[in-house]
Structures are given as C-alpha cells and as structure tokens.
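Handover notes (outgoing to incoming on-call)

Open items:
1. Apple domain-containing protein: sequence verified, structure written out, both below. Nothing else pending on this one.
2. Nothing else urgent.
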Amino acid sequence: MTASTASDCYKLCVPSQNLCFASVFDSATKTCTYVQPSFNAASTLGWIIPKTLPDTMATVNQVDFYVTAHQDDHELFMSAPIYYSIKDPTTKSVFVYLSAGDADQKDGWWQARETGTLAATRTWVNMFGKFSPTAVNTTVLVKGHHIQKISIGNAVHYFLRLSEDNLEEVLNSNKKKAPFDQPNEFYAGAQAVKDVLKAIIVAEATKVSMVTAHYSDFLVDPNGDHTLHVASGRILAELLDTDTLFKSCISQIPYFGYQHWLDTVNMNDPEMSAQRAAWFGLGVGILTQYARDTWSDHSVALGRTYTGSAKFTSVACAF
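Apple domain-containing protein structure tokens:
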C-alpha cells in the first residue's frame, strides 16, 4: 500500500475494513504496511499478566446472569451492561449458553464460537486489570447433566451445548433431546432446561442479595428476531416470574436482537469502544481454529444496546 506520509499511512489502517491494528510507514519507499491478525502454531503474540493479580473473586456483592441462545449474543446485544459488570471486581458475571451455536454445521464452528466468546471475556478482564485472565475449566453435574463450566476472573461461562435444532425442539415442542457432548443425557423438555437454569442461579448467587438477569426480549416483535433468542428469553422469564425463590428479588432486563441491530447507534464510550475491542478479540479467537472473518460479519452492528421493558426490584435475595 502506498502512502505519502506517516499520517496518511495511519489513516489507512481501519480495523472495520481491513482488520488492521497497527501500521508501519517506510519514508524511503513511501509504502505503508499493515499489521493484521493471523494464526501461526509456532508463534504467539501477547503479554504476560503479573502473578500478583488474583484468579478468583474475594468478595461477591452482586451476580449478573446473561442467559442467551448463542455464545456471541451478549457481546452483540448486551455489551453496555457487561462493561460495568466485569469492571466491578465484586460483581460476578455468569453467562449461560443454551445452544451449541452450531448453525447446523459439523465442521468445528460451534467449538470455535466457544473459543471466541472466551477470548472476548479475556479482553474485558484484561481491560480492567483486576484479575488474571487464566481460564479454569471444570465439568459440573447440574440436575443430571454434565455441563462445561469455564471461569475467567469474575466471569463464569456455562455451555449446555444442545444443537440449535435440538434446542428449538426442546423449548418450543417439549421434545426429548440430548446435547452434542453428552449424547446420553437428555433434556425431556423446556422444564428440564428451566430446572438446570434454576440450579445454576442458586449455585452462583447463594447468599448474594443483589441479583440481575439479562435475556432476549420475547414480547415485542418476536418475529423480527431469531427464534432461539425469543425462546431462551421466554423460558428464563417464565422461571423468574413463577419461582418463589426468584420472583420478588431478581431484577430482569430484556434486550432486543435483530429487531434493532442496525438502528441508530445508542452506546457511548467507554462501553462502545470496549465492545469493539471485545468483538475484535472474539474474532481473533475464532480465527485460531476456524477460517472465518467474524469481525466483518457483524462489526457494522456494533454500538447498539436496545432494551425492552425491565423489571427492577430492591428486594434482597435470600436463597
């Protein structure tokens, strides 16, 4: 790429257009070279976090649950509150993904999406510098289901790994289906998923008085969104509205998805810039194991967090 000055070279480096994150100007040849992400198994570009940073939380004053159909729904549609959730070292963010996010592909796509969302979380954790971004991987038994749980700093991820087709049948038709990684552990229907969600909420928020739940809006223009966004939001809201442990003490905030994802940008800095950094991290994470330019897929939709009708409560939880 040719450029007249270093300033012109700098202006040519536009992440949303060419994945450039740095540029080098050669004044002798008047050439501009981009620095772009790529994968090489023999080399790693990164940084070392001082071991003085803790791996786990010492105090938990609040737990924010983000329950979504896919691994990247919260980065795309709920990023504004997540910025503040992860920024606060006494707030635990718990992300629960109901589907594997396979999109009916069997070529490693859903596994790459898991890697991507974990990379996005590391970006946020590194941004605030309160915790080491070391991932702690465990398999937990929840209501008869072995579920992958991965913790990074003050963020926790649960992967239920039902295929998208199977999740749709479980939630909307009450059919009996099993996840990819546990083919002998069936979810009998929507209630079985609710039972798992309840157990996760209790496990992660026991003795914590302030609890919030974030999910996809299912009441307004549901036909304008992904059917699994709508179904995942509906079953969580049904659980929270009817369970005696939760109905009076957990604040609920629904979010729109595709209905508003190209509407007017309504986020502000610093959360807007943080979302772009997290999405870039997600894209690079996916590229380490799957050849797809995820950044360009959805970068045009960044900068939006549209909420539905929230239900706030000041009643302290006591479970």
